[in-house]
Amino acid sequence: MLIPDIWRGEFESGDAWRSAGTEISVFSVATAAIDDAMMSSRHPFTFSAWCASCRELRLMRATWDFGSLGSGSVSPAWTEINACCCCGLNSRMRAVVAYLDRLGLRADAAIYTAEQVTPAYAALLKRYKNLIGSEYLGSDKAPGETVMRDGNKLRHEDMTHLSFPDRMFDAIVTMDVFEHIPDYCAAFRECNRTLRTGGGLVFSIPFFPHQDKTHVRAVIENGTVHHIEPPEYHGNPLGDGSLCFQHFGWDIFDSLRRAGFKKATAHLYWGPWQGHFGTPFFVFHAEKV
Question: Which secondary structure element, helix H or strand E, spans residue 149, and what is its range?
């Protein structure tokens, strides 16, 4: 295919990221100039780009939704915009799908994803016939329990206590989930337990490459949420926003290794030809060897 891929670099640690500092600086300046030109209008607009989910050229919609004020100007929420007008997947979702394509998973691969009511779940189900999806439906539900919600039959799973047997899946996929789990290390252990040898955990998260350590924003003590920073809520397809408990830094690789993963990598992506603006953003891959 003549359409270039979106993968610009692979990093196994903060040291590896910093050692590429000069190259990253040049890349950031060059991409920012292109991004600024693309987003010169302060009004929503559509443009054509290759959609990794649809596997076709599609119209994508760029907006200023979820933008933040910084350095005197509005900064777009790059990962949340540029949704495909056909499948509905935004930039970060399509990046995860593109990375799964890179792995060459079979159509009959056993895959679990921690969502079930989103466009991303629908897109993955078209590719992987054995896909299992779930939502977190509350602490009063049992792992694996089926619940009717708005006419839909949904599976409840708590990623820190999954109902699945050991070594069940070839891949586990999450998209901006782990920041909402206070004991994310327990979730990593459960992912490792339920993956087969050679399987992988593929995920996106809000990630801050200038941070060596994960910044904890809130904790749960004796069943009560205690806020260390002002509450930050992200969108939840099932209702009100979900509290963000942490902003991840490079020590996430230490957490993944302690959970049993032997190799973990962060894959930098960018490419307006596939509808991805802004940098640095990553898809993460942790391998069970």
Answer: strand 146-149
Please classify residue 57 by burial: count the beta carbons closer than 10 Å to its beta carbon, then call 0-12 exposed, 13-18 middle and 19+ buried: exposed
Residue 145: inside a domain, yes or no? Answer: yes
pLDDT in tens, 90-132: 999 999 999 999 999 999 999 999 999 999 999 999 999 999 9
134 neighbors 157 (Cβ within 8 angstroms): yes
CATH number of the domain to which 150 belongs: 3.40.50.150
Within-domain flag for 121: yes
CA dihedral angle for residue 81, residue 69, residue 7, residue 126, rounded to 10 degrees: -20
- Burial call 59-85: b when 16+ CB within 10 Å, e when fewer: ebbbbeeebeeeeeeeebbbbbbbbbe
Tell me if 37 is assigned to some domain: no
Q: What are phi and psi of 252, to 5 degrees?
A: -60, -30
What is the C-alpha to C-alpha distance for residues 57 and 49, in angstroms, rounded to an integer?
5
Residue 35 φ/ψ, nearest 5 degrees: -60, -45
pLDDT tens across 13-45, in order? 999 999 999 999 999 999 999 988 887 777 889
